[in-house]
Design a protein that fits this description.
The structure holds 2 protein chains of 2 kinds. Chain A is of the alpha+beta class. Chain A contains 6 helices and 11 strands. The relative contact order of chain A is 0.18. Chain B has 16 helices and 20 strands. In chain B, strand 1 (17-21), helix 2 (29-38) and strand 2 form a beta-alpha-beta unit. The chains are: A alpha+beta, B alpha/beta.
Chain lengths: 221, 475
């Protein structure tokens, strides 16, 4: 499965989010359920449960939130149609991702980056949208071992948030597994695509699992 | 490592015959380097090369390296950049093992210099001759006084022989750091200035010092790493045997890809290097003081297997400061002394002393009492390492305190770090401790940081025992 997706991804610079998530799912990384749509005609057979999110899915726009290309918590088909028509007007010719809303958790950022000295490296940090404000992140060169992943989490200044702080329940093992899967993805795909950088942000770390809510992938061209 | 390359590097440190190309009797760099080399204590023959002179400082001079009878292992080149290419070609013809290009005016000077540097590297390609530099001070070995620097005798206070190998991308700064450290009797097995690294790189030298019997710890000042993957691989293997301390500067020069992704913008301040260093057991220093402090601690003492520290102090304040720093550290914790241990300590010290950790004997203590307190602390299972804080402003103790502490640091089976607060007698004790192989520092923070370095190294080795041995065997 990963092979087929890599074929579609190859040769692009900014990879559309649906393909990034297809790739993540090929590595058993959990994401919301999503469909790619263009206009209201595509909503007739929509089989996703509300509430839903509508997101601009373009290989031209990298930071879709910055251009107002994300609508969250859409409660009904009516509302979805309305939003979609508005998006069609504002982003003519573009495709959109409609996806299920996930129950929140502790927000993490997980990333890959091709470092000019050490090569492809993995990052994990706290904060989701606040990640750059907190700067509470740590890196390792891939591939990483389980001990590396555990050590990474133990280095975060805000690590208590992952250790039952104020009754917040997070499954740390699931985060470690996610890091190992992302490391594996980076390592195995290296022969086919040259990853410049990947952002999984936010990732919700919850009591039973972790889910990648938003994903961005930029390849070297 | 590659046997040829090992021989090339060996020729830098233990040459039999050295040609100084560009030696002169005028008061210039070419004379100073020649003079410095003449003072070697390794029985090394030093031959000047200069087409304009018959002899220099009483030594027969040759017009070209090719005219020197017999083998030449090392050529030290101090000629203008434009003359270097021809000189290097002659060295290749003469089968000189290694050439140190002191001369500047290469890639550091702009595109034309870069081109020249490429031509010089091209000239040794395919031969067995290798190059250190250009734009370097070369090497300095305290043991046999091989000194290719152009720092005159009276200006360069030379460090003594020791077990730290210092590899640096900035020669002048490293020499200054070393000279400053001589105040505390820090010794070195070797200094290497890498210069522009047109040929031999930092990784080649790490590989060499990993096997060098005179080197216990390898420390590096780096601004760039030429081959990240090989660097990590070599450091990973070396770390199994010897500690590596790196001061990597230029941490803020990034952010070009910031706009592309959050991950990219968060990679600033060299965070990837931070992670990479941890993966291969490198202890990272943030300034030159830390660099040599950590090297001393790791060179002198065994790593901390666990991180519970007992403090022995002769006066309150410094013990409290150290306690704060230890409690705030990610790598250290204060040892909890069991009741029976406290009971034993009470039997040794004056009644108003404190037997909690920190153990504060007060200034009212004799050498003999200190000895017995250390015996108790070294015998306590709940203690992994000892931090002794001394100040000899009081009347009872003498310089012999150093021997007493060193006895336990050597035989006790637990690492010890000493903090010596003061200048007079205290400084004498600190220096004596350093000569006896006990890491001793003049401030509380530096002492605690040194313990952190020992703890980091211990954690890395423990982890390797758990998982990494298989990986490293596979390499």
């Amino acid at each position: 499965m990963a092979w087929k997706i890599l074929g579609e991804i190859k040769g692009r610079k900014n990879v559309p989010e649906n393909l990034v998530k297809d790739l993540l799912r090929a590595y058993n990384i959990k994401t919301p359920e999503y469909r790619v749509i263009s206009d209201v005609g595509d909503l007739e057979n929509l089989d996703l449960p509300f509430p839903l999110a509508l997101k601009l899915c373009s290989d031209r726009v990298l930071h879709k939130t910055d251009v107002g290309g994300v609508a969250l918590n859409i409660q009904s088909l009516e509302e979805l149609k309305e939003k979609l028509q508005e998006f069609n007007r504002r982003f003519p010719g573009e495709k959109f991702l409609v996806e299920t809303m996930e129950a929140p958790g502790v927000e993490l950022i997980v990333g890959l980056l091709d470092d000019s000295t050490f090569g492809l490296s993995i990052m994990v940090g706290l904060g989701g949208v606040f990640a750059e404000a907190f700067e509470d992140v740590t890196f390792r060169v891939i591939p990483i071992a389980r001990e590396d992943a555990e050590e990474m989490l133990s280095e975060l200044r805000g690590k208590r948030v992952l250790e039952g702080f104020r009754g917040i329940k997070v499954n740390k093992e699931e985060i470690v597994d996610l890091l190992l899967k992302v490391s594996k993805l980076g390592e195995e795909t290296a022969d086919h695509i040259k990853i410049e950088t990947m952002d999984l942000n936010p990732v919700f770390a919850r009591e039973k699992d972790t889910v990648v809510v938003d994903a961005k992938l930029v390849l070297k061209t | 490592m590659d046997e040829d390359k090992r021989e090339n590097i060996e020729a830098l440190f233990h040459p039999k015959t050295v040609a100084v190309i560009g030696a002169t009797s005028e008061r210039k760099f070419g004379r100073i380097t020649f003079e410095n080399l003449l003072k070697n204590r390794g029985g090394i023959q030093v031959i000047p090369v200069n087409p304009k002179a018959k002899e220099i400082l009483g030594v027969k001079c040759y017009p070209s390296v090719k005219n020197i009878p017999g083998e030449v292992d090392l050529a030290v080149v101090i000629v203008p950049a434009k003359a270097v290419l021809q000189v290097v070609r002659e060295c290749v013809e003469k089968k000189v093992k290694t050439v140190i290009l002191i001369s500047g005016g290469f890639s550091e000077a702009g595109p034309e210099g870069r081109k020249l540097e490429e031509q010089v590297v091209e000239a040794v390609r395919g031969s067995k001759t290798r190059i250190l530099g250009p734009n370097t001070l070369g090497v300095f070995i305290p043991r046999n006084a091989v000194n290719t620097t152009f720092f005159p005798e009276e200006r360069f206070v030379k460090p003594k022989d020791g077990s730290i190998a210092f590899i640096s991308q900035s020669g002048a700064s490293a020499i200054a750091f070393m000279e400053a450290a001589t105040f505390y009797e820090v010794g070195f097995s070797a200094f290497v200035g890498l210069g522009n690294e047109a040929d031999l790189t930092e990784t080649d030298f790490i590989e060499y010092f990993a096997e060098d019997p005179n080197t216990e710890v390898i420390c590096l000042y780096l601004e760039k790493i030429s081959d990240g993957h090989r660097f990590l691989e070599v450091c990973r293997k070396t770390s199994l045997k010897k500690p590596i301390v790196v001061l990597k500067a230029g941490r803020t020069g990034r952010g070009a890809r910031a706009a592309l992704s959050h991950t990219g913008s968060l990679a600033g301040f060299d965070r990837v290097a931070d992670g990479a260093f941890k993966q291969c057991g490198i202890v990272r220093a943030m300034d030159e003081t830390e660099l040599l402090d950590y090297a001393v601690a790791l060179g002198f003492q065994k790593p901390l297997r666990s991180s519970r520290i007992a403090i022995l102090t002769f006066g309150g304040g410094a013990g409290v400061i150290a306690t704060d720093l230890i409690e705030a550290s990610q790598h250290l914790e204060m040892a909890e002394l069991p009741e029976e241990v406290k009971e034993k300590l009470r039997g040794i010290v004056v009644p108003f002393a404190s037997v909690n950790n920190p153990v504060d004997t007060t200034g009212n203590v004799t050498d003999e009492q200190v000895d017995r307190v250390l015996e108790v602390l070294y015998g306590t299972r709940e203690v992994d390492g000892i931090l002794a804080i001394i100040g000899l402003q009081i009347i009872y103790m003498g310089v012999e305190l150093a021997d007493l502490l060193a006895k336990w640091a050597k035989r006790g089976g637990k690492p010890m770090v000493v903090i010596g607060l003061g200048m007079g007698l205290t400084l004498q004790v600190v220096r004596r401790l350093m000569n006896l192989g006990v890491p001793a520092y003049p401030t509380v923070r530096r002492g605690v940081n040194a313990l952190e370095a020992l703890s980091q190294r211990g954690k890395y080795l423990k982890r390797l025992e758990k998982v990494g041995m298989e990986d490293s065997r596979r390499d």
